[in-house]
């Protein structure tokens, strides 16, 4: 009854969240709460460590801080509506709030894609041109590239999001996720959306897809360079410097490509697949990236071990 009352004149969208699982939503809340906790605390920890440790004020760690910032933004973008559904059973969202949320989600996704591209260029220079690395990759250049990355996605998205307000929306405005995505909202418009579809496709192709192709090319050159190294030990040591970044690339782009394919060509794919792909794409990378970089980055591991040792000392002193 509630869904049928969401008419063309209603300013609200209805976020379904997890259809058919209403009775166990309080159990689903637990893994989502843990994912948010790990993602937000982990990325905040990396940002604080890099900010407070002068030894980490280097290009590589500036890039890592950009990645942590985008992951943090991605987590915070979905937090209000997802937790609202779990805690308050609040499924309604005003259209303007929906616009803001989808703008933030897609903007931070584009930012993360661009940051991963810059990081792949960093690894390419470090392995293929080590003698020129310190000359080309400077802190100022990394910061400038980071700022360019921050503005590239949002600027391209502004027309896409603003055009949504010009469309009429007939019938029930029901979204199948617990957050707003452009590719889902556009399907609810009862008018010709060809321009929006083509523009959205062009933005994705010339940003995220182009980033993915360039990352793949950089790793092709890296693998070729590593294969030419004299000993197997040198090959392993060189490739180990890329493992953290390669993991970050895979956990971000694999779900992203899968979600894009499902939304554009999977009209007959079960709704559960749509929900799974969207949730993996938005929740898993922000949660896993700080864990991966904390394990694989020596300097961050050193900070963690130092904090643990200080905690042990304080515990002994209190006892």
UniProtKB/TrEMBL annotation:
It comes from the Eukaryota. Residues 42-293 form the G-protein coupled receptors family 1 profile domain. SUPFAM superfamilies: Family A G protein-coupled receptor-like. Keywords: Cell membrane, G-protein coupled receptor, Membrane, Olfaction, Receptor, Sensory transduction, Transducer, Transmembrane, Transmembrane helix. One of its GO terms (biological process) is cellular response to lipid. One of its GO terms (cellular component) is plasma membrane. GO terms for molecular function: G protein-coupled receptor activity; olfactory receptor activity. Putative odorant or sperm cell receptor. It comes from Puma concolor (Mountain lion). InterPro entries: GPCR_Rhodpsn (IPR000276), GPCR_Rhodpsn_7TM (IPR017452), Olfact_rcpt (IPR000725), OR51/52/56-like (IPR050402). The chain crosses the membrane at residues 27-50, 62-87, 93-121, 142-164, 198-222, 243-265, 271-292. It is a multi-pass membrane protein. This is Olfactory receptor. The keyword S-adenosyl-L-methionine does not apply. PANTHER family: OLFACTORY RECEPTOR 51M1, OLFACTORY RECEPTOR 56B1-RELATED. Belongs to the G-protein coupled receptor 1 family. It is found in: Cell membrane; Membrane. The keyword Transmembrane applies.
């Amino acid at each position: 009854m509630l869904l049928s009352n969401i008419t063309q004149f209603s300013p609200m969208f209805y976020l379904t969240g997890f259809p058919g699982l209403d009775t166990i939503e309080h159990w689903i809340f637990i893994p989502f709460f843990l994912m948010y906790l790990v993602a937000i605390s982990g990325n905040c920890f990396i940002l604080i460590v890099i900010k407070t440790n002068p030894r980490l004020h280097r290009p590589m760690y500036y890039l890592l801080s950009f990645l942590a910032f985008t992951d943090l933004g991605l987590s915070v973008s979905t937090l209000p509506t997802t937790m609202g559904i779990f805690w308050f059973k609040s499924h309604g969202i005003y259209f303007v709030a929906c616009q803001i949320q989808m703008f933030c989600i897609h903007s931070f996704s584009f930012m993360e894609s661009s940051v991963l591209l810059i990081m792949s260029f960093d690894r390419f220079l470090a392995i293929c041109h080590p003698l020129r690395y310190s000359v080309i990759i400077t802190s100022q250049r990394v910061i400038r590239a980071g700022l360019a990355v921050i503005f590239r996605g949002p600027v391209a998205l502004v027309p896409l999001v603003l055009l949504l307000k010009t469309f009429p929306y007939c019938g029930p405005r029901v979204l199948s996720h617990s957050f707003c995505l452009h590719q889902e909202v556009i399907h609810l418009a009862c008018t010709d959306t060809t321009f929006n579809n083509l523009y959205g496709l062009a933005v994705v192709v010339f940003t995220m897809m182009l980033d993915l192709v360039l990352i793949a090319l950089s790793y092709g050159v890296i693998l070729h360079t590593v294969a030419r190294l004299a000993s197997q030990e040198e090959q392993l040591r060189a490739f180990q410097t890329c493992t953290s970044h390669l993991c970050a690339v895979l956990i971000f782009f694999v779900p992203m490509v899968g979600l894009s394919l499902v939304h554009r060509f999977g009209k007959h794919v079960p709704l559960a697949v749509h929900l799974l792909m969207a949730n993996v794409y938005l929740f898993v990378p922000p949660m896993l990236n700080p864990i991966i970089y904390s394990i694989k980055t020596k300097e961050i591991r050193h900070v963690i071990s130092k904090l643990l040792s200080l905690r042990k000392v304080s515990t002994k002193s209190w006892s």
